[in-house]
């Protein structure tokens, strides 16, 4: 193996005495792995060498490069850590020991490498290793990258399992550490093995239009370079390619709004690198004077850096009047941090230039380490995936401290993140000085002020109901469950019994046997089952789906007699070619009905009029360019279900119930009401798609003020009147 690329790269930023350490480590690894082969047949030394080269590209210190070269020596070559310490000192040997321990966790049970337990334990070990020395995880990420590059040598099931773990754990971890280069390479490599056909199809589509886009981007770059030169600003302007997995995600996003691959104009964008922050803002002004900016597409990450330290100005402008062009503007130092993330700060540990905010940037890591010891494998992995490896919003405490949260988080999530007791005692929240409901979704720059009770207060079990949306983060849910778990078992059993009886009645399962339900939910005893319901370990929604035997995505099937299926057209019932669901109305001259061949006529002021294709007005229409292809909307199956709502009578109650139903886009086919002793009773037939939708709508109705019960009714109790 030729080690010269490693040595050449190391000499670019390391002093000679440090390069000598790397050279000595290479020779030792070379001798130790002599004669060993990888499963692909190549010399084994290729793996540690490529791992070290990746880390040299990140400009990591000599100890990290040496440890990368030696990281498989203890396990594969029967060399002790003590021997390595004698030869290379305590720092290198400790790094090698840390990586060896991680490797044992990751691969000791190859058959279940992608299982939750294996992933969680792997991640726990990485967090502990990161707390002791961040460089252990840098080596592990580089090790995983080369393993992904050579994954072809493994059986198909192993390839898929490792690729899945890479996409779910390693790539997001690199993202949280700000290591963009590592992140996108891991994503693309994992995507290639998980979805090979889509990977190669996107690569082909990108290649077909590459010359056209590169010409467009280079023309834009030349214009900007000329304007920067006139303003006396030195810097680099380069094209910025989109990566395969990034394009895949964008294609899916565009598909939801009726656009296709041909509409993606930002496959290549521009990046501008300058010397100083003032130059960044000067270049931004030049760009906005040259081209029209899209207002909603500007973000200032220099003034408001991301939690992982990323800084840059992002703007999107319209080139030639219609073509969007993404542009990033940053300093050279910001670019280094963007590409290498936390790894870019590591040289500061050796005393060159202290980064006063280094520890602050890793506050999320300390938080995870605090939590990992108190959660079981499933809860811990869920917390990491849901709370830390997702898109985030940044909000402020009343004192001005910035706190990151996953998108969709609520004031209750905020309260529990600050302190468990603050969450338990929460009775309300103010956002930017205004009262909001507890299921309000936090937005960037919100100032969150939690209102608490003066005395002791217990959390509500309703907060765990996912349909009501009170808490989104796994951390908050676990704290609420923990509170209920601490209550007396007898209380939990009684509370669970009451909730279960209410759920059985609501879903028309009065005759269901509790012992059978407990077995279906995989509990050994009825008391364990009821206690789990009582402390929120399982939710009414889970019971509804499991006990009825219906997956959430499948239609609700009748329990006693066949339920008639109703076919409904979605949306307005008309789809306009290439656009989707637009303002349309049916022509009065030919009265088209579903099944007829139809065509649209673009009016001047009232949208599109839909005619039958053989309509005399269409046949005689002179302005053929105003005709557009349309089709009847997608037909979906819905099932009629009888529901009963009882509530204390109040003004606006019926309006509130029907509004909730309308917001869920559920049709009411019949309804009748009764009043008795201030109790309002409503019997209605609604059309739903599946059990999950029924459970969701009943939960929403139950949350309305004054509602006593919302249940699935028996058909013979329904006396319908208009």
Query: Averaging pLDDT over every residue, what do you get?
Result: 76
The total tally of domains equals 6
From the alpha-carbon coordinates, what is the Rg to the nearest angstrom? Answer: 31 Å
So what's the overall shape?
A: globular
Total E-strand runs: 22
Do you know the CATH architecture of the largest domain?
Orthogonal Bundle
Helix proportion range: 40-55%
Strand content: 15-25%
By DSSP (H or I, 4+ residues per run), the number of helices equals 29
Structural class: alpha+beta
Instruction: Give the CATH level 1 class of the largest domain.
Output: Mainly Alpha
Distance between the termini: 84 Å
How many strands, which pairing sense, and closed or not: the largest β-sheet?
Answer: 6 strands, mixed
Q: Which fold does the CATH topology of the largest domain refer to?
A: Hypothetical protein af1432
The CATH superfamily of the largest domain turns out to be Hypothetical protein af1432
List segments where confidence is low: pLDDT < 50 over at least 5 consecutive residues: 105-114, 347-361, 371-375, 550-563, 715-722
